[in-house]
Amino acid sequence: MSTEKDKNARSYLLAVSSSPHAHSGESTSRIMWTVFCCLVPAAAVGVYAFGLAALSVILFTTLGAMFFEAGIQKLTGQKVRISDGSAALTGLLLALNLPAGSPWWMCLTGSLVAVILAKAVFGGLGQNPFNPALTARVFLLLAFAGPMTKWLVPRTTDAASTGLLWGQKVSFLDAGGKMIADGLASPGSVDAVTAATPLGLLKEGGTEAVSQMPLLDAFLGNAIGGSLGEVSAAALLLGAIFLLIRGYITWHIPVSFMATVAIFAAITNAVDPARYAGPVFNLVTGGVVIGACFMATDYVTSPMFAKGKIIFGIGCGMITMLIRLWAGYPEGVSFSILLMNALTPIIDRYTAPMPFGFRKPEPAEEKS
Fold first, then answer.
1. Mean pLDDT for the chain?
2. What are phi and psi of 262, to 5 degrees?
3. Which of 18, 65, 121, 175 has the CA that lies 20 to 30 A from 109?
C-alpha cells in the first residue's frame, strides 16, 4: 500500500510547467546594463573629443529617457522598471546618434519620441517593431535639420587655429550660432568650430576632398567629426567583441552588414575611384560600426534565426551603400536598419528552421 509520501513524490514528478525549463542565469536587466557598459568606451572617447558639449548630450538623453519611461509606466498603472537598464540604454544609444552640442530641448524631444512613441505605444519593452533610438534620430533629422547637421570639430585637432581640417575649410560660429565671416573671428568671439563630416565631404567633392584624412585617426577617434558614436570605431569594436564573447550577440548581423558595405565599396571604388571611396573609408567613418554591432543586433527588432540574421545584415549593408552613394543624404545606416526592421517578421517567417521531429510535407501527387 502506497503511503502519503509516495503519492506526493509521484505528484511532484508528474508536474508540468511552462518553459524555460533550464535558465542560463541571465536577465533582461543584466543584459541591458552590460550593453550599456560596452558603449561607455565610445561615449568616453566622444566626451574626450568634444568636451562638456558631448557630456551634456549624454546626460540629457539618458536621464530624459529614464524620466519619460518612469512617467509613462506610472501613468498607465504599471510597475516602474527603469532600473532594468532598458531606458538608460535607449538614451545612451540616442546620444551616440546625435551631434555633440545638440541643444538640451532637442535631446529631451528625442528621448520622448524614443520612449513614448517608438516603444510605449506598442506595449513597452519587447513589443516595439522599430529600434527606438534610431526612430528618434530620424524624427529629429526630419524635424530639426539645422541642429542635426551642425557637426563640431574635435578639440584634438588644430582646426580652430588654422581654419582647416584635412585641407578643407571649417566654419566659426558665435554664441548665437551665427557664422562668423572669414578673417573677422577673434578668439573671444568664437563659440564653436564646425565642419562637414567625412561622408559629407565625400558626397560633395569626391575622394579628393577626403584625401588628406588619416584613416587610422578615423579608426582610433583622434580627429573625426560627426555623431558621438561615429568618433571611434575602435572603441565600439572593443565593446562589440565583449558582447560576442559573452554570447549576447552573434556574428551573423555585424559581419554580414560590414562585409556587404566593404564589398559594395570595393566594387564602386574600382569602377570610379575619383568619386567613390574604398572599403576602409566606408567602414571607419559614419555609423556602420555602431549600427552593425549595437543597433541592428537589437533582440526585439532583428530576426531570430541565423539565416534570417545574415539576410538582415546584407539588406542593411546594401541599403546603407545605396543611400550613401546615390541618395540625397550622405549617410544611410539609420534608414537601412529601420527599413529592415519592417521586414523582420517576413524574414523570420521564411527562415525559421523546421521543428525537431517534423518533415516537410511532400507535394501531393497529381490525380490521374
1. 84
2. -65, -45
3. 175
